Amino acid sequence: MLYAQAFRGSFIHPDELDTLSRASTFTTVPLNFADSKWRSITAIDQPLLSYYVYGIAKILGETIRLGRNQECTPNPNTRNYKPLSKYVMPYQFTTPSELSKPILCMMTPLFSMRLVAVLFSVMTLGIVIIIGMFIDNVVTGLLAATLYLTNPAFLTCMVRAMGDPILIFFMTIHVFLSILIAMRFFKHTSVAVPILAILSGIVSGLAMSTKLNGALLLISFWLVIAVLYEKRIIADALQVIVALAISLVTTFCIFFFLNPYLWTSPLQNFNIMVDYRLKTIAYQSKLSSNPALSTISDRISHVIINILLPKGDYTTFHNSALPFDIVFFCFGLYILIRMAVRSRARGSMALLFLVWAFPIITITTTMLAIDWDRYYLPIILIIKIIQAVGITHFFSYIFRLLKPWRRV
Question: Rounded CA gap, 36 and 335, in Å?
């Protein structure tokens, strides 16, 4: 399904052309950090990890095309050949199925990058299954992955050569590290806490190096550590302080290492990067055909309407007149809270998942400046897991109620 969507169904997004251009830039001068390109606008307004990843994929795609002796017109080896991102610009908002073979041939690097996006999306779904298994059971995990896979925003955005598939992948990895490993695999907390903090910091740094809002994972991790301390799983306050410090330092070391623009003056250039990004978002909100969300109430209402209410753009039961999405979400939330209160093993998992999810949902919602589908992806991820819990337990209760009647 994802493969077909990537190579036939999903239209070519303008930001993919930007990714294509930047991926070419930051993989052709990887060692010459004195080059002015590393201090240009394209190195400032977005972190660079996704461009490294897609740049490698682009090189591999071009190598495969040349290895197969595919002749493309125009030929990228000629001097008068302009950059591919500019050549394919007239075809933005066009689906691959509408393009001719020569144009598809020229777009091999772009589709190579899309293949990487698909791989990250598949790995994300695999981790979602594992998260559902640990929180509840196998059925919940499979159902959560299915709900996320079939969501319109996932099918549209997670197959494009943009930073979102990589960011969402790191988010799911972070859930696994913050919740599952903390509760299941580490018995000696004196060793577990610094190891967990380092691993969490690495993933947070990679997420932040993909998109700046990956820094939200730091807040989630700190809240998880606070809950572990409150539950006396981590008994020493000093360990908490050490964990918070390690995760913070590790995150920014990874971020610093992957963004050479920061090397000369880290704090000053980081402030410039954040400020420039905020100005870019404000500028995009003015130009976008989608409504700009200027108030927090607007942002909250858009999230609820688009994800939870009937006829919403990103609901599961889109064609239903009944509010199944919000009912299953509320029921799933009730089940997780009840598990957190009553059960020790599963309850700890449910509690930590809710604690991890809280800042992701609240901060992402309050920062939702533009009504763009990809901005909803982190919120949809969490909501679909909660809905899967609700659906699983709803039908479990139904079967239990019907069991005595089946014996009669």
Answer: 55
Question: Measured at the alpha carbon of residue 79, what is the angle toward residues 73 and 85, in degrees to the nearest 5?
Answer: 60
Q: What residues have CB less than 8 Å from 80, skipping those under 6 apart?
A: 74
* Residue 370, phi then psi, degrees to nearest 5: -130, 145
H/E segment holding residue 99:
none
How far is Cα 401 from Cα 26, in angstroms, rounded to an integer?
A: 60
Please say whether the beta carbons of 335 and 353 come within 8 A.
no
Two tokens, residue 130: 């594992």
Phi, psi of 292 (to 5 degrees): -80, 135
In terms of phi and psi (left: phi > 0; alpha: psi -120 to 50; beta: otherwise), the region of 332 is: alpha
Lowest mean pLDDT among 7-11, 26-30, 290-294: 26-30
Alpha helices in 176-294 (DSSP H): 189-208, 216-230, 237-258, 266-287
Q: 């640990």: which residue's tokens? A: 134
Task: Identify which has the larger pLDDT, 190 or 41.
Answer: 41
Nearest C-alpha neighbor of 347 from the set 121, 142, 143, 179: 179
The DSSP code for 48 is: S
Separation of alpha carbons 69 and 240, rounded Å: 58
The token pair that represents 296 in the structure block: 């927090």
Cα angle value 255/256/261 (rounded, 5°)? 115
If DSSP codes are grouped into helix, strand and coil, which group holds residue 292? strand
Instruction: Please state the rounded mean pLDDT for residues 222-228.
Output: 83
Mean pLDDT score, 207-230: 87
Task: Tell me which of 290 and 390 has the higher pLDDT.
Answer: 390
Is there a contact between 328 and 384 (Cβ–Cβ < 8 Å)? no
- What distance in Å separates the CA atoms of residue 270 and residue 264, rounded to the nearest whole number? 11
Give SS3 for 202. helix
Mean pLDDT confidence for 117-125: 94
CA-wise closest residue to 84 among 118, 58, 117, 114: 58
Question: Cis peptide leading into 74, omega within 30 of 0?
Answer: yes
The whole-angstrom separation of Cα 255 and Cα 215 is 10
